[in-house]
Amino acid sequence: MVQTVSPSSVKVQIDTLVTKTIPVTTSFTGELPNGYWADTDALTSTTRLDVTGAKTDISNITRAECVVDLNDKTSTIYSTFDVTMYDKDNNVVSSDILVGTLPSSTVRLPIYPMKSVPIDVLGSLVGTDDLAKNHEIVNAVATPATVRIVGEQSVLDAIDSILLTPIAVNGLNTTSTVESDLILPDGVRLLDSEKVSVLIEIQEMQMSQLFEQLEVQIVGTEKRANVTLDVSTVDLTVEGRYSLVSVLMRKDITVQVDVTGLAPGVYKLPLNVLVRDEAATVELTTTLSVTEVTVTITQQ
């Protein structure tokens, strides 16, 4: 028989059972593997939850958060996740205070394979064989040079580059910068801007001309001095703009060796080339068959 009970009395606190609707947010942790992209704009998730429990406890809950781990995910996420509840001071509220089913959030996040592909600028040019006479395209680049696309893997595998809306270059004779739109293949989505800037570099065609057996002129000879060269003629190749090189004649070219102020003796001296004038000489590329000569100076 029970004689005594200790303690002899207990205090019981009675509270009202209530249900409260709280907002739910979804956040992400980790990163998708390289080559995959999550369409966060198409995210669907639970935005509000009902929680039930003692009024004193439930009144402290202000919000809930669902955290989705993206690590190693390579396909669309469609699953139910536990939520963490918080009070107004962002302290975690234990789910032990709840009555009934623990709250959760259903999340759907589309995930697609992603690929970076180059923009095919040259393939987008029209009239490349109809530029201004004696001109050529030396470079054509897009900014950005590559764009990101997403879609089914089999579709992405078949795409090596993306074309632009046709760019007409007929009759062009100077470098130009234009804007153009990407032509997106069927079955893919573009992650970057559809408009790109295209730099088309155009210049005159380059040509070369060979001048053979040019006489080497001696400048700066002192009176009563004899000057002889081991090489008296040289060949010269001139390269540059078609409009400049194509009209050059032998009389436009001077090859010289300068002996100014030299005493009798034997010297190795460089050859100097002048093509028409100093400006043309600087612009052009000249290549001599011989770059220096042996000069012998004797007194008469």
Structure in words:
By secondary structure, this protein is mainly beta. It folds into 3 domains: 17-109, RNA Polymerase Alpha Subunit, Chain A, domain 2, CATH 2.170.120.40; 114-204, YbbR-like domain (RNA Polymerase Alpha Subunit, Chain A, domain 2); 206-299, RNA Polymerase Alpha Subunit, Chain A, domain 2 (Beta Complex). It contains 4 helices and 26 strands. The protein has helices at 55-58, 153-157, 242-245, 278-283; strands at 17-29, 36-38, 44-45, 48-54, 63-69, 77-82, 84-86, 92-93, 104-109, 111-120, 125-126, 135-143, 146-151, 162-163, 167-168, 176-181, 188-190, 195-204, 206-219, 225-229, 233-241, 253-258, 265-270, 272-275, 285-288, 292-299. It has a 5-stranded mixed sheet with strand order 4-1-5-7-8. Strands 2, 10, 13, 14 and 17 form a 5-stranded mixed sheet that branches. The longest helix has 6 residues, at 278-283. It is elongated, with a radius of gyration of 42 Å. This is CdaA regulatory protein CdaR. Pfam families: YbbR. It comes from bioreactor metagenome.
In brief, what are we looking at here?
Helix content is 6%, strand content 52%. The protein has 300 residues and is mainly β. A five-stranded mixed beta sheet has the order 4-1-5-7-8. Strands 2, 10, 13, 14 and 17 form a five-stranded mixed beta sheet that branches.
